[in-house]
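Worked example 3. Consider a protein that binds adenosine monophosphate.
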Amino acid sequence: MSANLAQLLVRSAHTYPEQPALAIGARITCTYAELAGRVSRLAAALAQQLPANERVALVMKNCPQYVELLFACWHAGLCAVPINAKLHPRELEFILQNSGARLCFASADLFDAVAPLADSVDCLEEVIDADSPRYASLCAAAPMAVAAREAQDPAWLFYTSGTTGRPKGVTLTQKNVMAAVLGYFSDVDTIAPGDAIIHAAPMSHGSGFYTLPHVAHAALNVVPESGGFDAPEIYSLLLAHRGVTLFAAPTMVKRLVDHPVDADTTNLKTIVYGGGPMYVADCKAALARFGDKLAQIYGQGESPMTITAMGKAIHAASDHPRFEARLASVGQAFTGVEVRVGDANDRPLPAGEVGEVLVRGDPVMAGYWANPAASAETLRNGWLHTGDVGSLDADGFLTLMDRSKDVIISGGSNIYPREVEEVLLRHAGVSEVSVVGQQHPEWGEVVIAFVVPRGAPPDKADLDALCLDHIARFKRPKTYRFVEALPKNSTGKVLKTELRKLLRDVQA
Ligand code: AMP
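Given these inputs, the predicted complex is written out as structure tokens:
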């Protein structure tokens, strides 16, 4: 038996053939035996068309076919390229070209936008609507055995969001992805047959990764009918399925907490949050609402979902003397993963000192696709350079400050936006906040806070007073700008680049 990710599905189908595998909303669409059968047929059709290691792009909103296609690609010895379905056709074009994808599957609603790219992207032979008779015919091919794979074979090309320049394709091998699966079981949560995961976050990203541990343990993959995140829908799905996990960006968790229902959440097993900072006040509110069901992960495309984790037990240990500090952290290194906070020469810094977060271990990418210069730069000295800035405490808990490019330098001092944001969120009148630097002739940069108020905007003098109570005077925002909402990307990350651009436009 080869160590192919596709074996995870084959094994579950052998052991739990009758367990439900996929659902749309409350409706089960297939069992594990049926899913494995469809995947092996689809894989055979793909393998007839493409030799091993070729790339197959997926431009699809969350749908059950996502799971089929991921596993069919691996079953056939191919590499999946899941692409953010919200990208502009020009961005899609770049990724299709860059990855050398020869086939692209699109969900029905996106097909018309994607199909013309077959003319402009040289390598692309066909765009297939995942809801069409053509797709159904692929699922009717004669089944094939799982293709042999080596640990270093590419399994998933993950395109970075490219907030700075062109997106880069992170090459994740069979070994990298398998390490992320094992990491889930060792450090995030247990999964039993019959449990479920609701894919409310994009499957091209973190939620897609979490199909793997759930398939590995014969749990149900649920795609909400809306195809995305809708708080009332999540609450109603919790009545339909049991042992439910949700992977959610912190902003989604906040929306669930803010949703005014007295819903029954007995069936909720775990909310795994990550992908962006969870503020302490929001984390406590979520613990108060859901009980001890929270786990956190910190990862990035280059070490998918797998750098540090903080399990439910630590979230539950409210009597621990460092409870608050731990909630403000992203937890400890995953089992078998090394995390270092390094100086400019990648040497380890003592506990408490701030530097770049470096990572080494099995989940760390092989490199960027067809980009040896960027790979060498990011993986220099054998460490993944995350671009995140943080510090480790004496117990190995990592606290992230910010992306290095988000750090504000004012009058020669470093200001970490996160620290200022945490303070402002203590104010009852502040719902969300994002702090950025604005160019300033005298200070280099000054601190600007974009605040989403909860009801009437709070008094600026109160916000100032709060800051002066908790942080050094120079970190206090010079200006508060009250806004209705913060700009966010499809995975819920606040787009600080857009906030900075807004400030430049105002200045110009
Ligand atoms: P991506 O590669 O799009 O998944 O983005 C990864 C980045 O999101 C990381 O480098 C961090 O800056 C941020 N991130 C991910 N998880 C967390 C977390 N738990 N807390 C704070 N930031 C996070």
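Take a moment to read the result before moving on. Residues 160-161, 274-277, 296, 298-301, 330, 386, 388, 400, 403 surround adenosine monophosphate (CB under 6 Å). The chain has a mean pLDDT of 94.
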